[in-house]
Design brief:
By secondary structure, the chain is an alpha+beta fold. It has one domain: Deoxyribonuclease I, Chain A (4-Layer Sandwich). It has seven helices and twelve strands. It holds the Pfam family Exo_endo_phos. This is Exodeoxyribonuclease-3. InterPro entries: AP_endonuc_1, Endo/exonu/phosph_ase_sf, Endo/exonuclease/phosphatase, ExoIII-like.
Length: 268
């Protein structure tokens, strides 16, 4: 079995003070994908990844922003930071690790803001990341591996993926263009939404809730954290769980970890 977890930590040092380290010590995951690490790697205490092999992609353009990582119990055979597009190479938004039979990537898409340069950046990321996903799938297949891209995609794909979908139809994260792009990932690019493959009905469960107001208490959230995999791996998913905290004060991030168990590598 291969167990993989993904979570946007909303600042790793802040999360560590609230419960991340306890969660990391308790998880049964073989691989953990992190987003919004924020801290430069040279400022992170060694205890944050003690017992793990960690590969980070930090933002050197905006120090203390973004940042993604892949933690694994076994050392990866190879790693890659970025996906070959100069604008995003130093932005701390993508890192991947190659293991026997599978490539695991951690991604953090820009959040965007409609009508601003932030949305333009998000759309450029989407436009350039999609062909890389196609390229990666082909490259991995030629090497006998499947692909699993985990992370904060900052897009709710369907109406069942956010509580207040009617009020957010023109907002970043739920625009028609963003949703259509996600559909392309799950069709033309040949990937699967692992959670929805096992749990096609909604609404929710959600993976992110604003800290403002009563969003968490009212479960007014968004499902924007995904396991996105090639079909053969998706078909071998045994369970996938959103680890929603029991109460507001038990939160160590504004996201919830999403953990999946894959019957992988295959024995047949």
């Amino acid at each position: 079995m291969l167990t993989v977890a993904t979570v946007n930590v909303n600042g790793l040092r802040a999360a560590a003070k609230k419960g991340f380290l306890e969660w990391l010590a308790a998880t049964e995951a073989d691989v953990v994908c992190l987003q919004e690490v924020r801290s430069p790697v040279d400022e992170l205490p060694a205890e944050f990844s003690e017992g793990w092999h960690a590969v980070h992609a930090e933002s050197t353009l905006l120090r203390g922003r973004n940042g993604v990582a892949v933690y694994s119990r076994e050392a990866p055979e190879a790693t890659r930071v970025g996906f070959g597009v100069s604008e995003f190479e130093a932005s701390g938004r993508y890192v991947e690790a190659w293991f026997p039979g599978v490539v695991v990537g951690s991604v953090y898409l820009p959040s965007g803001e409609v009508g601003t340069l932030r949305q333009d950046q998000k759309e450029r990321f989407m436009e350039t990341f999609l062909p890389y996903l196609v390229e990666l799938r082909a490259k991995a297949a030629a090497d006998g591996r499947e692909v699993l891209i985990c992370g904060d995609w900052n897009i709710a794909h369907q109406e069942i993926d956010l509580k207040a979908w009617k009020a957010n139809r023109k907002n970043a994260g739920f625009t028609p263009g963003e949703r259509a792009w996600m559909t392309t990932v799950f069709t033309d690019a040949g990937y699967r939404d692992v959670f929805r493959q096992l749990h096609p009905e909604g609404p929710g469960p959600y993976t992110w809730w604003s800290y403002r107001g009563k969003a968490f208490d009212n479960d007014s959230g968004w499902r924007i954290d995904y396991h996105v995999s090639t079909p053969r791996l998706a078909d071998r998913t045994t369970t996938i769980t959103v680890e929603r905290p029991e109460s507001y004060d038990a939160r160590w991030t504004d996201h919830a970890p999403v953990t999946a168990v894959y019957n992988w590598p295959p024995t047949d």
